[in-house]
Automatic annotation (TrEMBL):
Gene name of the encoded protein: galK
Record protein name field: Galactokinase
GO biological process: galactose metabolic process
Residues reported in the UniProt entry to bind Mg(2+): 119, 151
Site residues, Transition state stabilizer: 24
Organism whose genome encodes this protein: Acrocarpospora phusangensis
Catalytic reaction equation(s): alpha-D-galactose + ATP = alpha-D-galactose 1-phosphate + ADP + H(+)
Amino acid sequence: MRIFDAFVDAYGSAPEGVWHAPGRVNLIGEHTDYNDGLVLPFAVPWGVTIAASPRQDDTIRLLSLQMGAQTVEHLDEAHGWARYPVGVFWALRGNGLPVRGADLVIDGDIPEGAGLSSSAALEVATAFALNDLYALAQSPMDLARTAQRAENDFAGMPCGIMDQATSALAREGHALLLDCRTLGSRQIPFDLPAHGLELLIINTNVKHALADGQYARRRQECEAAAAHLGVPALRDVTDLAGALGRLSGAERRRTQHVVTENHRVEALIGLLRAGAVTEIGALLNASHLSLRDQFEVSCPELDVAVESAVRGGARGARMTGGGFGGSAIALVAVERAESVRNSVKAAYAERGWRDPDFLTATPAAGARRLT
Ligand code: GAF
């Protein structure tokens, strides 16, 4: 295993273990997690692998095969990508758990900038490694929450729980239905090939600079709207028309998206239960329009990917993840996949944009120890 050899080269002995955590793609339920709502993501076959050994002191030595090396004696020395793994040490220690230093080698194969949650995979792989190295006996959901806290309070990105929970809990061949209020989850069988379908990921290869600031702003707008309506979270809105009548501007549009998106997750689950997988495309399309027009987190590259995929014969398509770039997904009949790809490529070429990348996503397993 290349990571094993890299560890021996870097640190002069074999690692105590090797762990893997996947990235994710979200089928539906976008920008609902921090509104206490429902999400339906699944893990992708790409992720972060970490070889690690514990240390007798508090030093953290990190070697990423993609990003370079950092040695961290004081947690606040971590910079850039290292804030994600080091934030996990910080969060576990903050919980009073006996975590000292470690030597780590990190190897990742999630396409850069694709919006497939490479940071969550890095955090969750670190959390699973430390859980075993220091016999912490934390549950996968405990570790997901620790990883989220690392990202929120150490790396400074106010994300919800979806990405870390998916990486920690996913099961091969299944999508994960997660209630982000109770943190209850259910594994939903999701076997597209059995229905002659595949899920195409269209990586736009763009990330607009405003992404992080706009994410925090959306979160604040949702919280302000819930406060106006006198409910704990937008999840609790039961009379949408009544709520919309009491709101205006951005708060009104954000509420419209979050409430209808939660309904779309439930509707999609209903179709999957009924075996009507081929029918879920309309919900994907509706989700995209709502994210574009009501939540305002799409961008021209995502819109063109979605529209040209549908024009090329996709059963449905939508942006996935936080937005402002990253990836779209398209549900396609296997025999139409080529025509969908060609349609998207042609639409990009017409605008003089760089070709998007295409990947096919099959639901993969969640975080685990490899050796
Ligand atoms: C990003 C965040 F990290 C998630 O928590 C979620 O809010 C998502 O955007 C939007 O659904 O991936």
